[in-house]
Structure formats: C-alpha cells, structure tokens
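Subject: sequence -> structure tokens, single chain

Hey, anyone have a minute? Need the predicted structure for the following. Not urgent.
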Amino acid sequence: MSVKKALSRVPVFKQGPLERIRTIGDPVLRQQTKRVDTFDSRLHKLAEVMLEVMRRDDGVGLAANQIGVVSRVMVWRDPDNEDETYVFVNPQIVERSEACCTTPEGCLSVPGVTMDVERAEEVVVEAQDLSGQHIRVTLRDLPARIAQHEIDHLDGVLIVDRTPPEERRRVMKELREQSLTIGT
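Reply:
Had a minute. Here:
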C-alpha cells in the first residue's frame, strides 16, 4: 500500500470553529458580548464546548468570545478541585473589595506569556445559571481573580489592558518574538 493511501486512512483531528481559542489581535476579543435571554439546549451545548476547550487547553476559565461566540457566558473551575466547574451566564461584578493584590496572570488568548495584573482580592458576582436562575456569589483570592479576568473578556478587555505601559511593552515584544520564531 502506498504511503499516500495509508495516510488517507488515518483520521485527522480538525478543530471546529468553536474549538479554537482566539488569540490577541482577533477582533472578537475586543467586542462587548451580548446578554443571553434564551436558556435552551443551545446554551447548554455552548457551555459543554467551553468546558471541554478550557480543560483541553489547561485553563482555569474561559469566556465565550475566546472561542468566537459573542454571548455573555463564562466557565471556570476551582483550581483546587478540577472536577468542580461553574457556568455563569450574564455575569456582572456588583462589589469589589478595596484590598487588591498584584499577581502574575496568564491567558489562553495571550499564549506563552504572563504579566503582573492588579485585581481586587474579593468580588461579588451576580449572574444566572444555565436554567436562567439568578445567583449571587462572593469569591475570594484565585476564584475572584478568575472571575474578574473572564468578565473582562466579556467586556472586550484583555490582561494587557490591565498592566502598566512598561509591562505591556515587554509582553508585546515577547509576543512579536514568538511570532517571528513560529514563522521561521
């Protein structure tokens, strides 16, 4: 059997449009997401896909626009318990603590770099679950950071927007160098 014929029998995994993480420079990441008003099987499917992509790419959170969907939906997992996942529909931060901390943060849409980002140590988030029921949660420490990061995405804000200019320049230089390395 020829190599060409043998290779044609090997299944090739192709990422569907919702399975590809959008990266910095993609205009969808700068869009303000739209409020979800219909709580149906399509929303459940979107949440399933988002959770799958988040796990596959070793993330702790994912916003819908990171996979090209301009809906106000985010998923996240408890960093201490990978099996404990959450879906927030139409999330809003309604309270922030005055106490803040600056910690290195990464992003699936800004791959290969981390940057120092200041965030509130505690936030109160109001959202809806997949059935449309209203929820209100108080999050502290890393879960609060995850929620702030993903809600930023839903508002079209990236972590580079939350850093001082010198940090932003450093990160953008790293990203340019990465793209030059990939291109060679």
